[in-house]
Amino acid sequence: MAGNWAWASLDRLRDSDCSIVRCVAFMKRIFSYTVAALAAGLCLRLFFAFKFPFAPSDTTLYEQLATNWLQHHVYAVTVDGTLVPVDLRMPGYPAFLGGIYAITGRTGPDARFYVVLAQAAVDLCACLVTAGLAALLALLRPDPGSWKRVYIVTLWIAALCPFTANYAAVPMTEVFAVFFTAAALVPLIALLWSESGGRTAFFMTQWAARHSYSILAFASGLLTGMGTLFRPETPLLLVAAWILFAFLWLRKRRFLFLAQVIALSAIGCALPLAPWAVRNAVTLHEAQFLTPKNLNMSSEFVPLGFMAWEKTWLFRMKDCFLVPWKLDGEVINLDDIPARAFDTPEEKERVSAILEQYNNDVTITPEEDAAFGELARERTARHPLRTYVWLPLARAFTIWFTPRIELLPFSGKVYPVREAWREDPIDLSVTLGYFFLNVLYVAFAIWGGWRLWRENSALGLAVALLLGYVLLRTAFLTTLETPEPRYVLECFPAVLALAGQVFVRSVKPPDLVKRSSLPDYFSSTGSG
Fold this sequence. Notes:
Elements: H1 2-31, H2 34-51, H3 57-72, E1 76-79, E2 82-85, H4 92-104, H5 112-139, H6 147-159, H7 162-168, H8 174-192, H9 206-210, H10 212-228, H11 236-251, H12 255-284, H13 304-310, H14 317-322, H15 345-361, H16 366-382, H17 384-401, H18 417-423, H19 425-455, H20 457-477, H21 492-499
Antiparallel strand pairs: 1-2
Helix pairs in contact: 2-5, 2-6, 2-7, 3-4, 5-6, 5-8, 5-21, 8-10, 8-20, 10-12, 11-12, 11-20, 13-16, 15-16, 16-17, 18-19, 19-20, 19-21
């Protein structure tokens, strides 16, 4: 009897093991499907949309532009009941909103649900493009057969990234900027395949294959131009690519070829912007392909002195809410300004006197602005490194390593940790969780980039392009007086594509150290 019981126990254990194996195999199949990743990503975006709906002040401006454009056929804002044509924002997002309004018959807040659904679809498309970008990088690796694993892993990472998913639930431009950045990176990376001695197989005809450089250069510019219709700094991607191309091809004395690639990409970028430039020339009588630097109307006073003063101390997002974003509308309290904004007690008294005058009518005057400008010049003269080096570095660190909870109902308070935990443990947990998750994404991207850099020269060029774009965009953002973390989301296609490379074993055979090995079906002979 005891023997039968023992054998029965062994049978049950074997059946249990088989069930576990079948379950694991089933889960592997589920996670290998593109549709499963997209479904999970859609659920995450809908969760943010329904649980944490958010509409910043910029949303109202975009909705007003779209409504006036659709109903009155004028790209304008309403000032005292009068339509005033403006170029405050690029026309891409208002055009998107106008399309949604025309289809649904609803405008403004009533249409936000449909806007969010459309943005979720666009953001999931961005995830697919980012996964394709990662797969393209994998095809350049010594083991190109790993591209499928890289593709699906990157797709899951991108689909479940809460930082980009959260903005899909907010009526803002970030989703489209991320999509077009990812799309433009694909032909730019494909251009670098030529350095491996092969030819990409994106084209079905011999004519297209012979002119692949021209087609890819034009496509990269066109996609960049489309992205510029949503975010005016998008051409920084082309600038980063041109710098790398110049480094590559000037050394080889391919001057005409470099000029051709730059010209075609520039033309491609300019084409989508041409109607906007023509409209500005005809309506506003100005040559403007983008938007005004300070996003101001032609008759609006720009407080350049106040902005210069901000740049001598401001680097945190929290301070933007307390000081600059209150300008010309709310009282600014001296106690809300951090101590680092004052080098001496006398300087603090001067700021107090200026703010006392400003708070009388909460409108900055040219005289008050000039006083702030004088303070900025004095502070910069005393500590030039602070203004031009240390604060930009602090802004760069802030926009990259913030917890990214600006759209969520959490304070972000961490210190002192024990007190923060006692006051609101959920708030502290979410803040720290988002912070460490952000660090993890960046760490994986650095790790993946390092592995690619070491494997072969073609991959090194691809990493240089992605890293160059990230650094150039970050450097540009540090010159802004209001460091918003959302502005680096356009770098996340590069971050996610590099992070996906970590989950594949690194292979570096001796004969592949100095050349790229592409699969036969992705290479052919010939030159550009």
